[in-house]
Amino acid sequence: MRQKKKAEFLTEVELEFMTRLWEIGEGTVRDVLAKLAPGRDLAYTSAATIMRILEQKGFVTSTKQGKTFVYRALLTKDAYQSRSLKDLSEKLFDNTPASLVARLVDDNDLSKDALNEIRELLDRRLKNDTD
Amino acid sequence: MRQKKKAEFLTEVELEFMTRLWEIGEGTVRDVLAKLAPGRDLAYTSAATIMRILEQKGFVTSTKQGKTFVYRALLTKDAYQSRSLKDLSEKLFDNTPASLVARLVDDNDLSKDALNEIRELLDRRLKNDTD
DNA sequence: TTGGAAAAACGAAAGATTTAGTATTTAGTG
DNA sequence: CACTAAATACTAAATCTTTCGTTTTTCCAA
Questions:
Q1: Is the C-beta atom of B48 closer than 7 angstroms to strand C?
Q2: C-beta of residue B104 within 8 angstroms of C-beta of residue A125
Q3: Distance from residue B76 (CA) to nucleotide D15 (C1'), in Å?
Q4: Cβ atoms within 10 A of the Cβ of A73, count?
Q5: What is the mean pLDDT of chain B?
Q6: How many CB pairs under 8 A join A and B?
Q7: How confident is the model at residue B35 (pLDDT cuts 50, 70, 90)?
Q8: Residue whose C-alpha is closest to residue B58's, from B20, B10, B115, B106
Q9: Which residue's C-alpha is at the least distance from the C1' of C22?
Q10: pLDDT band at B5 (very low <50, low <70, confident <90, very high)
Q11: What is the maximum alpha-carbon separation in chain A?
């Protein structure tokens, strides 16, 4: 079973599942299914299909333990965050991260705490750079 | 022709077209088509279909001038940037914009100038909030 | 005023995504 | 060893996306 063209990004549902898997570290189909949002009511087979697709696409791997497969993420959340940000920056911000942050900061629904937190982060970063 | 469920986000190709439309302000199918990347070789009818879909989904509007439609974006690029960032922040950064910025700053090793630029932006923003 | 070129309208085909049903396999128990 | 419960494998249907061909409309010039 050859894996397709190695998808770069997760679809909506795939991300939903990966997020749960990142949370629990590793787990079976049932483990992941149990972690989905309360309202979410997916058949077991649907969940299994999603996990199989994630494996086909190379985002997770599995090892058989007893009769069940235990899944583990191959891509860390950090790495996927980076990949997604890079993509967004390219596609929507002319590859200029500063303008991305500018837009984020200009948005009205950012709390003052959040703004301060970001500024402290930058201060630390600037300090380290000069060390 | 009822417009579907009001899509929130642009697909890959839709974003490609919207980006061109944002660049030129407004234009016909041919205007947008002409702006696409050099290698991109789409049939006129394909481009027309994309523009029609964009209108159906409520992202653009059109007015007839002579025999052709002139399209105009209904959603500004700024607004779409905000929407996209909000979505990414929710889905991948636990709704914590600071962690998004942290990831960005850690990845890109931004120049000191860029970092300073962002910090000044924050300072201005924080100052305005307290006014 | 009519013929032709350009554009719009329509819709179909191919592929991806999302969901789930049915069939098959497997591990353990009586 | 045979049966059963649970898991996996396979398949399919519905919808969305991307692309483009065919048909219809529209404007203008000869």
A1: yes
A2: no
A3: 29
A4: 19
A5: 91
A6: 106
A7: very high
A8: B10
A9: A45
A10: low
A11: 55
